[in-house]
Amino acid sequence: MPADDHVHSEWSWDTAVGSMTATCARAIELGLPSVAFTEHADFEPLHVPDGVHLPDEWQHLIADGVLTPPPLDVLRYLACVQECRERFPGLRILSGVELSEPHWHRESTDGLLGVGRFDRILASVHSGVVYDGSARTEIGVLFTQQSPANIVRDYLAELLRMVEGYPDFQVLAHIDYPVRYWPENGPSFDPSDFEAEYRAVLVALAAAGKVLEVNTRVPLHIEVVRWWREEGGESITFASDAHRPEDLARGFASAVDVAEAAGFRPGRDPWDLWHRA
């Protein structure tokens, strides 16, 4: 079982049921060698269109149709990490952060990273632009407004801009994020329809010496992992993106099979990155 390098706890604003302590206990139960708590750092206010209902626990963050994510309390979060390290000495516990659209918010991101030390720095894109270009909207909400193919192409284009424009991260999170919202009542998602766009991101990622995340919230298609190796990608991490303790390492057995079939192997230590064979 590889390390789970993308996990959220109560310190991420979008989970009301997260628990760092319970997640650590679950990691030991599963026999995980390591877990990285990569909490959300979101700086982009998000437009909430009329008729879109978000979870009740998010309602206090919405005013005048705009959801403003609260800041990550870095110091209290890091104190919690240290408490868990002392409580679970047999588990390797990494601090971390998931930076959303850091290339849009360089000053805010620099300020956050200057507050404390993070073992894992993930970069991701969660939002896009509505048709008239007037406001940012979460990718899942966009599926009510735009064609799925356009959303994926726009998303991958924004990922490319982020990889090329923001150097201060280690791991690219969920390269296939829009697939979580792909409509069920139509053709199934086929990554080959977007091969050129995927490869452009992977080429830039490899040139920058970054790591690709194999996220299991929706199983990452083996073709994307193969393209990563073909384009010079050296390393991968595994990520459940769990927001609840019970979701830790979910889907890892299948993800390990995909990684091995695509030509990646474990590192020297159980918690290491996996590298190309």
Describe this structure as you would to a colleague.
The structure is a single chain. The protein starts with a strand and ends with a strand. It has eight helices and 14 strands. The strands form three sheets. It has a nine-stranded mixed β-sheet. A three-stranded antiparallel β-sheet has the order 3-5-4, with no helix packed on it. The model has no long low-confidence stretch (mean pLDDT 94). It has helices at residues 20-30, 74-87, 106-113, 139-142, 148-165, 195-207, 222-230, 252-261; strands at 4-7, 34-41, 46-47, 62-63, 66-67, 92-100, 120-124, 127-129, 136-138, 171-172, 211-215, 235-239, 264-265, 274-276. It is α/β, with parallel strands linked by helices and 277 residues long. Helices cover 31% and strands 20% of the residues. Strand 10 (171-172), helix 6 and strand 11 form a beta-alpha-beta unit. It has a single domain, classed as Metal-dependent hydrolases (TIM Barrel, Alpha-Beta Barrel), CATH 3.20.20.140.
- Count of extended strands: 14
The CATH architecture comes to Alpha-Beta Barrel
Walk across the major sheet and give the strand order.
1-2-6-7-10-11-12-14-13
Range of helix content: 25-40%
Q: CATH first level: which class?
A: Alpha Beta
How many helices?
A: 8
